[in-house]
Fold this sequence. Notes:
Strand order of the largest sheet: 2-3-4-1-5
Shape: flat
Structural class: alpha/beta
Oligomer: single chain
Amino acid sequence: xxxxxxxxxxxxxxxDVVGQRHLLAPGAVLRRLIESGTDANxxxxxxxGTGKTTIANIIAAQTNKTLYRLNATTxxxxxxxxxxxxxxxxxAPGGILLYLDxxxxxxxxxxxxxxxxxENGKLTLIASTTENPYFYVYSALLSRSxxxxxxxxxxxxxxxxxxxxxxxxxxxxxxxxDWEEGVxxxxxxxxxxxxxxxxxxxxxxxxxxxxKKGELYLTREDALQVAQRSAMRYDRDGDAHYxxxxxxxKSIRGSDPDAAVHYLGRLLEAGxxxxxxxxxxxxxxxxxxxxxxxxxxxxxxxxxxxxQVGLPEARLPLAEAAVLLATAPKSNTAHNxxxxxxxxxxxxxxxxxxxxxxNVHADTTGFDNRQHYLYPHDFPNRWVEQQYLPDALKDVRxxxxxxxxxxxxxxAYWEKIKGRKL
Length: 422
């Protein structure tokens, strides 16, 4: 049976692990725990292909424990019981280290079933997940574990592993094998911090190579084709999806059009059209707001056009909206006003609607059948002073003028009309 190259060249020592210096550098906490032969339960959180399984293998070897692997997408409680049955036998003389991949797919009951064995010392658990463990892992299990976050490996960190894989294939190849300068970095860059994916791309590139004049020559163009779109980490229901949307909004809020189109492009390249449309409309209201009210009109037109033409052409109107929003003046005063108002409502601060603002049906009931409403259009400058907020909130200020040109112009106008400072 064919053994994947990525598994074959998996590091056996901490020094050979690619990336994760924040966890494995001399003196780092995880490294010290491993070197001390720890029995600690751990949760490894981070993208795929960043060394979580490799580290678990090294820990098992370091602690002389028998390593069992389960994937929560297919494992059952019986699988765990079968593993526990090996404790104290010749199959696991030094104890058991259970590596449970994708633990987020275990429900609460399944996760709870692990607690008994963790507490009595029958097994050491290393669980891994690509999703935020504080959202997906049962709190009692988390309280008995230490969480370590794995980071995506940089292209420069991945490149030596890619080169090593190429050298191994070069030695095994029946035909002379060589590659264009820059191929290792091209593969490392295109695989988005996933070392396993990069090694698999090397193997696929080698298998797809066409002999010419009795030799194999790997090109950057072929490397790009093999690894195309691999650099994106995207799961429409996972953390990566919301991270990209968050990055898009924060880039626009920070008035960086280059970052804005980058994150927009990542969403569109993954085939997600609806999410950026919705988020751009939110940004127009939340972050540009009253500083440039027409931004909402333009953004809505761009979104409508994008939804009508579909991908790939939708990228054009959405890019127009993203750049417009990023370069527009910013104001969150309306956002802050509604948040403050709703906060008071949640605290129970409301009160009766003032008599003069009630519907006209109120004029026909009660002891006082006069509404006392002053119609602003009947007064000079279309304004007359009267109370609009309930008595309990009559002196509250939710809206504060922004310092942008549009809101300052409105402020100056109303100061003049009302004859006082607002």
